[in-house]
Design a protein that fits this description.
Strand order of the largest sheet: 14-13-17-3-12-16-15
Number of strands: 23
Largest sheet: 7 strands, antiparallel
Strand content: 25-35%
Structural class: alpha+beta
Order of helices and strands: HHEHEEEEEEHHEEEEEEEEEEEEEEEEH
Length: 412
């Protein structure tokens, strides 16, 4: 009887357990299916985003994470450009002359300088106490005064005057004697020569005679190049006192290596760069012309001299040693840039190419000839590209920031 009661209860319990287990398996299967469907949907979403299968919007985070196609771009804004001497130029082929780079010296042109010499013995004094090298002087202006009073040999002017008066009296006497044939013509000529020499000496000092002594004047209008005596120094007749230069025409003398001897005949002009202002002068802009080139090198030297003459506009110092760029045969269809466009990093040259209104790219270039103002570009650029020709250093400094500012739009 007890067995009959327990058996139905056991069957009922097994049925309830089986129902719960089936419900759990169904729920688990549903979750697995949902997870696979979600993964497939996510894969499809990514595929559509990468390949552009379906257009859809992006979140701000997704847009920021995408890499920029112009990571090498340098931003140099209009505001930055306005604060400096900035210029961009388009590169186009042009004619460029072959360049021979060497050294040389700027010299006075022949006849452009004169030496002031003493016309009397005595103690020299400066007529203008502010006289110094570089001071302007006029032709005929008294620059020095020579005093000979109270010295052992006596006053030079008085001695010259006495000698002149004696020679004049002798000459006048000889004129009457030769007419009467009392003296020979030869004796008369000797007296006449002595008189003329005495007159020349007297005229040289008498015209500039002052109460203080004999004045010495400048033979040219120009400036005092150098002063060769000191105030109060005793000097003698003919001694150089100073050099005066007109400084209107100058000579550029370049020293060229013998290996360029066969190229010398093609040289037609030159540029030169001065060390004191780092400025490049173009002879064609200074009415320059070639004077001569040597047919051989000097003794003990391996260089051949080449000389040019040009106008001095007051900026070139005679005597200065300069860097010279001799210009020879022309080269057609050559890409060139102003020297100011180049930047140098460890011996490698770079320029900055404009990509858009405010974007630039650093570009390595290979350079050729350099005439002091322009440089030949052998490799790295193409005709039509726009390059920074003034302000390249400022763009280089801007590149130190590295990244493109957020929000900059690069237009193609």
């Amino acid at each position: 009887m007890r067995t009959l009661i327990v058996l139905p209860i056991l069957i009922l319990a097994l049925g309830v357990w089986g129902c719960k287990h089936k419900h759990h398996d169904a729920h688990t299967g549903h979750q697995h299916e949902s997870s696979e469907q979600h993964a497939a949907h996510k894969h499809e979403h990514e595929e559509g985003h990468v390949h552009g299968a379906e257009p859809h919007s992006h979140s701000e985070d997704e847009h920021t994470a995408s890499p920029s196609p112009h990571t090498d771009e340098i931003i140099f804004t209009k505001a930055q450009a306005e604060k400096t001497d900035f210029k961009v130029e388009e590169v186009q082929p042009k004619t460029f002359q072959q360049v021979i780079k060497t050294t040389g010296q700027v010299l006075p042109a022949p006849g452009d300088e004169a030496v002031i010499v003493a016309t009397s013995n005595g103690v020299v004094s400066f007529n203008n106490k502010r006289l110094s090298e570089g001071a302007a002087v006029h032709k005929g202006e008294t620059v020095f005064t020579i005093m000979s009073k109270n010295i052992a040999e006596g006053d030079h002017y008085s001695k010259i005057k006495a000698g002149y008066e004696r020679a004049r009296a002798e000459y006048q006497r000889a004129e009457s004697l030769v007419k009467d044939k009392i003296i020979s013509q030869r004796e008369y000529e000797a007296v006449k020569l002595e008189y003329e020499n005495a007159k020349i000496a007297f005229d040289a000092v008498s015209g500039n005679r002052t109460a203080n002594g004999v004045g010495v004047t400048s033979p040219l209008q120009g400036f005092v190049k150098n002063i060769l005596v000191k105030e109060g120094e005793y000097i003698t007749v003919g001694q150089p006192l100073a050099t005066v230069s007109q400084n209107k025409r100058l000579v550029l003398r370049a020293e060229v290596s013998e290996k360029y001897y066969h190229t010398l005949k093609n040289i037609n002009s030159a540029n030169f760069k001065t060390p004191y202002d780092n400025k490049v002068y173009v002879l064609s802009e200074l009415n320059g012309r070639i004077l001569s080139f040597g047919k051989g090198s000097n003794s003990g030297s391996f260089y051949i001299p080449v000389s040019f003459e040009f106008d001095n506009k007051g900026e070139v110092v005679p005597g200065a040693f300069v860097e010279v760029f001799l210009l020879a045969g022309a080269q057609e269809n050559t890409l060139t840039l102003p020297v100011s466009a180049l930047t140098n990093e460890m011996g490698v040259f770079y320029v900055y190419v404009q990509l858009d209104e405010e974007g630039y790219r650093k570009q390595e270039v290979t350079v050729g000839g350099n005439n002091g103002k322009e440089v030949q570009i052998l490799k790295g650029l193409h005709a039509g590209e726009r390059v920074v020709t003034r302000g390249a250093y400022q763009v280089k400094m801007a590149s130190a920031s590295g990244a493109i500012p957020h929000g900059h739009s690069h237009e193609h």
